[in-house]
Description:
Chain A is α+β, with helices and mostly antiparallel strands.
Amino acid sequence: MVDFALTDEQRSLQELARKFARTEMLPQAAACDKAGRFPEEIYRKGFELGLMNLNVPTEYGGSGLSVFDQCLIVEELARACGGMTTSIIANCLALEPILLGGTEEQRRRLLPPFCASYHLASFCLTEPGGGSDAGGLQTRATKDGDGYVVDGEKCFITNGPHASLYTVFATVDPTLRHRGITAFAIPRDSEGVVPGKDEEKMGHRASSTGTIRFEKVRVPADQRLGPEGEGFGLAMRTLDHTRTPIGALATGIAQAAIDYAAAYALKRHSFGKPIAEHQAIQLKLANMAQSIEAARLLTWRAASLIDGGQRGTLESSIAKCFASDAAMRVADEAVQIFGGYGYMRDYPVEKLLRDAKLTQIYEGANEIQRLVIARELLTRYA
Amino acid sequence: MSGGALVLGEVRGGRLARASAEAVTVARRLVGPAGSGTVTGLVLAGAPAAAASELARTGVDRVLAVSDPTFDAFHASRTAAVAAAVATERSAAHVVVGGTAAGRELVGRLAARWDAAAVTGVVDLVPDGDRGFRAVRTVFSGRAFEEVRLEGPRAVWGTHPLAFAAPPPGPEAPVEARAISGGPSPVPGTAVGFEAASNASGPDLAEATVVVSGGRGLRAPENFHLVEELAGALGGAVGASRAVTDAGWRPTSYQVGQTGRTVTPQLYVAVGISGAIQHLVGMVGSRTIVAINSDPNAPIFKVADYGVVGDLFQIVPALTAEVRKVRGA
Amino acid sequence: MEILVLVKAVPDPEARLRPNAAGTAPDLDGVKWVLAGYDESAVEQALLLREAVPDSHVRALAVGPAPRTEEVLRAALALGCDGATWVEPPADLAIDPLLAARALAAAGRRSPFQLVLVGKQAMDDEAGLVGPAVAEHLAVPDFGPVVDLRWDAAGGRFRFARAVEGGLERLEAPPPIVVALQQAWNDPRTAKLQNVLRSRRAPIEKVPWPEVAAALGDRRARSVRTAFRLPPPRSGAKMIEYSTPEEAAQKLVRALREEARTFP
Lengths: 382, 329, 264
């Protein structure tokens, strides 16, 4: 018997996130979007409540939540603002390589400061030369005495300009491709770390995204996460854990879109009655509801498989890919239901469309997700 | 329910609180037409004479005046004990208490002491066949009304301020001085001071017939005088939105809204207040609402009766001048 | 110091409000029950006192049906209360505020306390009866509506102010007392995630019903709601058209005098 009911504990987590989203995030969402403002005061409050380092076990001071419970929280936050949510959960992504690849000594040294007070960390994989082709990254880690010198440039780094620690993927030998990639934890105050400017983005404008240059940065060996050459696998295992919450984030954006659209359809009149009474609108809303329900359930299933100890690569890719495509479709239909008003910045739905777009691109573009899905699928028939 | 009624006469600054006179109106309706039941007034104070005499002219049948200086500070436990004893002695079926801070506190204590049914915040009475009257009251921050029937032989009714008219002064009923057996009783707490609210020059928010509130649209605390001048011209009290009290422009005591005070004046003027639900629930019960705001889409216009879209820095001084002209002040 | 906070589950004040089909009560189908308003302020005040006075404990106390009453007690635990006590009446027993007060007093009497905190009124029925009635049953003084409550350790007294007409009446009183809190005095905290998780596992003490029933005797609820309705909807503001501020003022004053008849 499969039970879809949430426990009392899960419902209170959801409630906590919903309250924070509604009282702290939503009132600022439109203004931050317009101004492209990074609302650090909201992120600090989120940190105080325990919403920031959801995946870090309680023994290091984090919230220690299962992937499933993370998803419940992320969906509620994203209903208020996808961009803020991306910034709030960026620590989960950045700290996951330390959790998965770090030694116990490294975990005890690196994680507690992030749980004791408000600090941001950034996951640095993507480079100007390519995002999806992670195996071909160009940032070099050259052995130097008992440490390394890291040299190269990372781009589209969430919270990059504000972070105090970077988990960086660099290669000890580009000819080795995947097998040369090695992970490092590099503090921002290391000499040669140069955060670049905040990018002007289409959506997720309350989040901060920037380039980080590593100019011959000396990194002691005890900041290396896992063995040399195992960084690619570490990045992939990290993404296996964090991809599913992106499905939840996309579901939250879609849920916000249908919330606005349905309420508007009941209020707005045309041809003498509320547009919700026109079948053309009802069919749209019905399709939107189906997409959201499916996205949520795929996310929940992937999360529970991973929490049960499985790798869940296929399921998490399906969840992320489906939910982000669903968010795009649902936000698109929400704009359509709002008509001309939907295209206006004074109404909330065009932001959702812009925010939804990113979920198809980041944390593994949907094209890559489909390749992964196909590969995982075909191995079962080979 | 039938039988007599007891009205608590609250003394404030030596005079009878207006809310107590309003309570007499309710008591008279509860006991039925003249001759069918008596209304007794009870005044507890160090020097009760002036207030007792005022209460005696509101249409009560008699007033009992207890002179005891310890009652000059309000203590619900002692007032409830005396009121319950008097109500029992007079075989009263009803005790009516005016809608003041002290009155609100007294109703529950007295009902528990006297083992009676109770209702607070009564804004109207509706006939309930041979059962007498049902109480009408607002609930959910003024967002809804309910009617309540009180069962059993005894009931305590707390009125909402300004919901009932005070009776015009009439002939003075007999005033009887009473002593509490056993002399002054110990007091449970000591009053050590009083801080007049800084908006005390006008009427209190809760009792004002006109309230003028200012919001974020005033831009800076030094502009708040615009609101105060309009309130002064209208003889009203000054209120503020949460944005204003949160920003420290005015003390929290000014705040109208869900987390502040609920007001139900005859006229409410919202100046530069957009109308967050938080604020609306504190003032939607007002009889007439006027909103002055530069944003034509501000939610305040959805609950207002009259709206002026424009620059409040021009509109409000013009309005203050017009009000002064019309009211001849 | 032992502090009792009386709390109550109320329908989410932000949720839509509508009467049931019979027009006798609010439609509570699917409503979310929350710890709200004055009660949140009361819990916050209790926690502030606990932080200020060494060796203090805060216990939340509520009377009401499952599951909502248990939920608000857990919400109080999540905010930081040390314990929670629940009086669950039989499902067929209607409870009005005065009956609730007798039940709460019966539960409160079971252990010593120096302070009982309660919201000035609940956000739904706004009766404001419970605090004073509990105080009468417990035979202790009560004060309300109170702001700025502090403990004077040297004097062994509480110092506080009542928000009364025209200002603040400063008072002091020795324990035990019942204090009904004015809202908006403090800024209630939000429960942290770890505390929310802990609160789910925390035990809730249940008072055996027969103990409470003995205090109620044969009393039943004496206030019965016979009707519940919304005020007539406002149709939206009549907008004053004008070309000068003076014209706007004249038109508005005329409308208030001649149409609305609410010009003072």
